[in-house]
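TEACHING EXERCISE
Course module: macromolecular assemblies
Task: Read the component lines below, then compare them to the predicted structure of the full complex.
Student: A.B.
Group: 4
Components provided:
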Amino acid sequence: MCLLYQGKIILSAVIIIHAFQYEELVQYVDSHQEEYVEALRDWVAIESDSSDVLKRPDLHRMMEMTAQKLRLMGGSVELVDIGEQELPDGQTLALPKVVTAQFGNDPNKSTVCIYGHVDVQPAKIEDGWATEPYNLTEIDGNLYGRGASDNKAPVLAWIHAVEAYQALSVELPVNVKFIIEGMEETGSNGLDAMILAQRDTFFSDVDYIIISDCGWLSRRPALTYGTRGNCYFFAEVEGPKQDLHSGVYGGTVIEPMTDLIGILDTLISPSGKILIPGIREAVAPLSDEEWKMYQDIEFDIENYKSKIGVSQLMYSNKVDLLAHRWRYPTVSIHGIEGAFSAPGSKTVIPAKVTAKFSIRQVPNMDPAMVKKQVTDYLHSVFAKRKSPNKLKVTMIIGAKPWLADTQHPLYEAGKVAVKRVFDVDPDLIREGGTIPIARTFQDVTEKSIIMLPIGGFDDGLHSQNEKMSRYNYIEGTKLFIAYLHQVSQIKKTQV
Amino acid sequence: MCLLYQGKIILSAVIIIHAFQYEELVQYVDSHQEEYVEALRDWVAIESDSSDVLKRPDLHRMMEMTAQKLRLMGGSVELVDIGEQELPDGQTLALPKVVTAQFGNDPNKSTVCIYGHVDVQPAKIEDGWATEPYNLTEIDGNLYGRGASDNKAPVLAWIHAVEAYQALSVELPVNVKFIIEGMEETGSNGLDAMILAQRDTFFSDVDYIIISDCGWLSRRPALTYGTRGNCYFFAEVEGPKQDLHSGVYGGTVIEPMTDLIGILDTLISPSGKILIPGIREAVAPLSDEEWKMYQDIEFDIENYKSKIGVSQLMYSNKVDLLAHRWRYPTVSIHGIEGAFSAPGSKTVIPAKVTAKFSIRQVPNMDPAMVKKQVTDYLHSVFAKRKSPNKLKVTMIIGAKPWLADTQHPLYEAGKVAVKRVFDVDPDLIREGGTIPIARTFQDVTEKSIIMLPIGGFDDGLHSQNEKMSRYNYIEGTKLFIAYLHQVSQIKKTQV
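Instructor-supplied answer key:
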């Protein structure tokens, strides 16, 4: 009893010590922010574009730099070979190695695993960047550069959070593992297999997985508890054996492009209603609780409109808009391969045209079922055209949505950490986009996952002029410091 | 009287001499065919792609080579500066000069003006060519190469026809002029103005204009008496100020691509019926005489199908098929600029997409009216979508159809020349494609025009594996030799 009593005393003391040290850690972060910006500058300077095979050496260098940074901090670091990718021409190319690292292995502490990526989307100044995309440039408190927000600054913020504990000789409250990949922007090639292979080794002692590869919804910090999945389709219509001159042959052949346009036009109505039978029926209904939650979320529709640059959105009220962004499916037609897409004019009847479109997945849609629904539907509308052309429908990506329980202790810990750093309660939000790795972590490792974003709502991921604000970067580092502490407060039995 | 009598005698003698010399000319052509093929090889080797600004130096070189060839034959040659073209980015680029040449200026003879072009459509081996497109390759009697049939071999055949007369010191039966341009494949930029400017100079003594920029319908030689025109449209739908991530924004924005697909789908029915009000009503009705003529034309539907590589055409009987190829309008959708058109997948909502489509023009359609009909119609169907996006419809080409009188002496001369060389009567055919310059020649110079093709029915113009058969090239040269003679037999008063 006495021991227990003393135990409680000691526990309280530890909490007090942590609270005190939190202030020291915060001061440390504030006083080192120039170094953090320089570290980000060094990382952004590497053109680690995973979609460009010519940039693969840069990507390898990026993974090595990441590993080296973690090694210098005394982490137990590995560069895991995940094999090769096959290129469309049949050649193979080494995939960037995955960096894993471990700081601490105290069996009495919880173990968190932080996932991030250091590859980026393509960027060229000619695309419309105001600054050189690979030269981090600070303007009015924003740090502009490709990959600044997606996902280099968040990865660095996590590393700096651990480093701050080390620098002040404050014991890490949890064991911290890292898994940093270099193929996220092109579909995390090789990562699923690696996670599966290391399920009973690297992941065996992991309690929680933390992902910071997303952003806030407004200026208010957020915790993200869901993402949409994605079923990506190719619909190919093939007719003549080669492209034809539209003057010479027009009027005599049944043109594949006309057929393709005809079937694409049956996917979604002008008001956004998906016309493929069965899709809408599968969607989990919006609960009153959810409706109320959406009502309370800080979201400025006018701001959103002006950011996108449109005069009118698909829905004019906040709840409908957020719901259709996060928890309803939608169809986007991305483009058509094989038709004439260059500037100028060409009088061609394209012989084979392939539409690319995708349907965002939400609970309780099932990609396998969606594949069947879409394929059957398109074939049925195509059949009505009585065209001699051939239709082939292929689903090339079938990524499921991911949804977490916002009452989970990981989220409760997030709420406390946000309150401590920002002195506000976070919004609980979802992502319209897909982070397939969340679903893989959940399905393979069966660990609990939280998405803890520090990116701003207007960071322009994948767009021109991507940025991370200095504020989000530095305060985000503090949030991660606070969160590590807060996770250590979760009783293992709670989970 | 005596003089007249003698005159007749002399005339008969000339005809006899010509007939005799024709055989010599034919022998000359046969014995020089390897040189002709080499000349074509040299011309095809020049990548005179008028649509590619980077190839402009090659195009200038092509015009210079053409001029030089005509100069070496003793022609009176000019390279006519026709100014500059404006590029979409506002820059200007010198247009390829137009080559004019003259052989003979005897006022007692008729003067023919031969029109041709030496620019070509784009071609890359990756497009699916079996041979290098700019390296003329002979396989089974076919000469494969970009521009071989369209229009380099026919231009060379005309030059070689004149050269043969010269080589044998046979007086040219008519004065021969050439007008060779380098922008035909992109709309003959600058040529209309040049023709207008030289109407009372270069064209003042021209009696007949001959165009050989087309092909036969079957293995039977043909004379072409009509072409369709073309109204080429851009329909641009503009929404957000930049491309958006389809996960992050999908479901909240009204996507320009969905709008564009929606309006494109209203242009033409699956059975080929144009849905734009007023278009079909303007078309000249098919006369009984025309119907009968179409019935008699040699045309093998099965062959046509297998050449195109389709199992079914828009119409299954010859008259309907030919009529819809030549004398009814049609809509072809060529492609969409601004959407994702590369291989692979990209989760983008394109911000601005521009469809390219064209409507073939026939008598009695009026391009100005068609422009209004299409623009009004698309705006009306777009309005029904209630989209906040902006639609802009532009007609960038408005080329009228052209139609000649098949009873004209130029056509009678053609029938005789074809009979002499090929020992068959030619089919009288029309072209589905557009040769806008025919219409310009007609409207500006008011001269009579004939289209005298030597290209094969399966030459694959604008496609992969374009070719000219050695047979058509060499026999075509003979046809031109015979035709020059035959034109000299037309009494000026007849016309």
